[in-house]
Amino acid sequence: MRRHFMEMDPDLARSLFEEGATLVLLEVPEGTEFGIDYNTWQVGPRFRGIKMIPPGIHFLHYSSHSIHGSGEETGPRTGIFLCLKPRDILLARWSKTEEELKFCDSEAEEEIERIRSSLQDLDRFLGPYPYDTLRKWVSLTDRVTEDTVRKLQPLNNKICSFAEVVPELAMRHTKDRLEQNLTPYDTECHSMQEGLARLPKMKQKEGTELRFSEIPKQTYPVGATPSQITQCSMDLSYALQVLLDRYYKQDPQQILGELQFAFVCFLIGNVYDSFEHWKRLLNLMCRSEDAMQKHSTLYTSLITVLYHQLGEIPPDFFVDIVSKENFLTVTLQEFFLFATNPAVDNNLRKRATKFKAHLTKKFKWNFEADPEDCAPVIVELPEGCDGE
C-alpha cells in the first residue's frame, strides 16, 4: 500500500490526510482478504485499517481466511457500501465466531473520539487509500447516492456473495417433517431425487436480501386491447414508466444509480443475482422505444454508464453457454435501432451512433444482423378476451 502514498502529489496527500475519512478495523486476522472499492489485499500482522479515503460512496469487502491440514481456504465475500464524509472515522472489530466485521454504533462515540485524538500514533498501522484507482471507481459509481445505498442495501447492511437461507418452516421434530411429506433423515436414501426430497424448502433470511426495484411482470395496462398488448410486448415503455413512477418519480435519472449499484455488487461483491437484475433492468430500458423520446437525457446518460461498465468485462463474458448468443449484443442491437430513429433527440442519436461504432471496433460485435426479437411476438390475451 505504501507505494501509492509515495507517488501521490504532496498537496493532494496533505489534503486527503486532513480531510479524508479513516476506517479503523481492529483484530482482523492475518491472511484475511480485505478490500475497498477496486482494491484487494491480504491482511498482514500490523494492519489496523485504511486512511486518507476520499469522501463519498465506497464499497468495503472482505473474505475470511483459514488454514486446514489439506491447505488454505477463503470464505465467501461479504461487502458493505459506506457513505463517508470528510474526516469521518468508522470503527469496526472482527468477530471470531461469525467471521465478519462488526461496526460500532453511535454508543461508541466516546471510543471513536479517543481514536481521533490519537490518530497520529495509529497512523503507521493504517494503509493509505490507493488514489490511482479512484477515477475508475468514480466512473462506475457516480450515479450512486447515499439515498441509493439506503434504499437498495439489505436491512442488515451486509451484501453476501452467497445468500443466507433458512428453512421456510422450522420442522425441529420428525413429526413436523412427516406432516410436510418429507422423508425422515434416518431413512436410507436410494437416489439423488430422494435425497433432495428430504431437504426442507428454503428461503432467504429476512433482512439479508438486496432491495432492488421490482420490474413489472405485466408489460401492458389493465384493459388493454390485443393490439395494445402486442405493442407493449414489443416496446416496453409502459412497463418502464410503471417502474419509474413507482420508484423514481421525482428523478428518473436515479434508476442509473440502481444500475450501477447492481453492477458493482456483481463485479466486486460477486453477487450473481445482482448481475441478473442488471440484465433485466438493462433489457427493460433498451427495449423501450417511446421512452427514449420522452427521457432522452436519461438515455444519453445511460450510454455513459454503459461505456464505463463494459470496459471492465471481457467481451465474451455475456455469451450464453447453451445458445452461444451474446445477451448484450442482442439487447444493444434493439437499443441502437430505437435510438437512431429520426424522432429521437439529435444529441442522443449522435451519442448512440458513436457508442455503437466504439463497441463494434473494440469488441468486434455485430449489430447489423436482424435481431431475433423482430420476429412475430406471441402474447397471451387477458382472461375473457376473445381476440376480436
Essential attributes:
single chain, 388 residues, alpha+beta, Substrate Binding Domain Of DNAk, Chain A, domain 1, Serine Threonine Protein Phosphatase 5, Tetratricopeptide repeat, 3 domains, 5-stranded mixed sheet, 5-stranded antiparallel sheet, globular, disordered N terminus
Structural notes for this entry:
With 388 residues, this protein is of the alpha+beta class. The protein has 3 domains: 2-134, Substrate Binding Domain Of DNAk, Chain A, domain 1, CATH 2.60.34; 165-204, no CATH class; 226-374, Aar2, C-terminal domain-like (Serine Threonine Protein Phosphatase 5, Tetratricopeptide repeat). 40% of the residues lie in helices and 16% in strands. The protein contains 16 helices and 14 strands. The strands form 4 sheets. A 5-stranded mixed sheet has the order 10-9-1-4-11. The chain has a 5-stranded antiparallel sheet with strand order 3-2-5-8-12, with no helix packed on it. A two-stranded antiparallel ribbon has the order 6-7. A hairpin with a 2-residue loop joins strand 2 (33-36) and strand 3. It is globular and about 70 Å long. Mean pLDDT is 85; it is low at 1-6 and 373-381.
